[in-house]
Amino acid sequence: MNLKSGMLFCVALVLSSQVAAQKTVLITGGLSGIGKEITTTFRDDGWEVWTTSRTPEKHPTIEGVKVRKLDVTDSKAISALYKEIKAKSGKLDLLVNNAAFIVVGPTETLSVEQARQVMATNVIGPLQMMQEALPLMRANQGGKILNISSTSALSPMPGMGLYSASKMALEGMSTALAAEAAQWNIWVSVIEPGAVKGEAAAHAALPAKLNEFPGYVTFTNQLQQTLTTATKEYGQPPQQVANIVLSTAKTPQPNLRYQTSEQAAQLAVNTLVDPTGNNSRDAAISFARDLYDRHS
């Protein structure tokens, strides 16, 4: 072998090892908000990125990313996506369940149909995504599942009861799976952001039966306005959340829970040292009364 051939052989070996070492991630809800930042952060870190959206046609193209249309409530579409990933990538190192559906409004005004939609998107969808991911990860002798939760799972806010319930369910399921899957070197973590800059609150759905309860209209309008203002003025940049997701993905044995800001961490501390729940409840009552008393 001459010098030139030897050099080409070495380059080929390096490129081959880089391809083999490249990790594969699947992200749901990955074209807007936090999800978009997660998608681009993993792409920039050299991962092979598959990302999904229910409406990819409404979002700009992200170069270097495999984008697929996916509604996480569609079981057949989920199975088809995983078959494609197995055929084209051969493995899955990381699943990030980020897709979510938010309804803002009092519990009494919610319809059963909305409740089903929230739970189907925020709980059943992630469940099916995880069930499909686990065989690929076992075959790969390990992997990670990161579920994007919320501080609402720790301390539900008035008017966010159904969303909070879905995130509590996601965390309960994640905690159980973390113990069940550790046998195969599969690590499960939940990421708990608080307020994050973006349009999630402004674009949240309102209760289907809100107009049937005039006493709740001002409450709901003021809550949505408060959340929108808070995320705009005090919200954490979504890039910070994405950085924590990436850091967690690269940690050999990550924590079960990660709060993404000092505010979120303090809320977790306050909740966990309040076994009766009375402190959190009383603070929520005071917040709710203020919403009722405001005038549009």
Explained architecture:
The protein has 296 residues and is α/β, with parallel strands linked by helices. It has a single domain, classed as NAD(P)-binding Rossmann-like Domain (Rossmann fold), CATH 3.40.50.720. 52% of the residues lie in helices and 11% in strands. The chain is built from nine helices and seven strands. A seven-stranded parallel sheet has the order 3-2-1-4-5-6-7, with helices on both faces. Helix 4 (112-139) links the parallel strand 4 and strand 5 (143-148). Helix 2 packs across helix 7 (238-249), helix 3 (75-88) packs parallel to helix 4 and helix 4 (112-139) packs parallel to helix 5.
Strand order of the largest sheet: 3-2-1-4-5-6-7
- Largest pleated sheet: 7 strands, parallel
Unreliable stretches, pLDDT < 50, 5 or more residues? 12-19
| Gross CATH architecture | 3-Layer(aba) Sandwich
Radius of gyration from the alpha-carbon trace, in angstroms: 21 Å
Number of helices: 9
Compressed to H and E, one letter per element, the order equals: HEHEEHEHEHEHHEHH
Number of domains: 1
Shape: globular
Indicate the structural class: alpha/beta
Question: What is the count of β-strands?
Answer: 7
The share of residues in helices is 40-55%
Question: What is the terminal separation in angstroms?
Answer: 81 Å
CATH superfamily: NAD(P)-binding Rossmann-like Domain
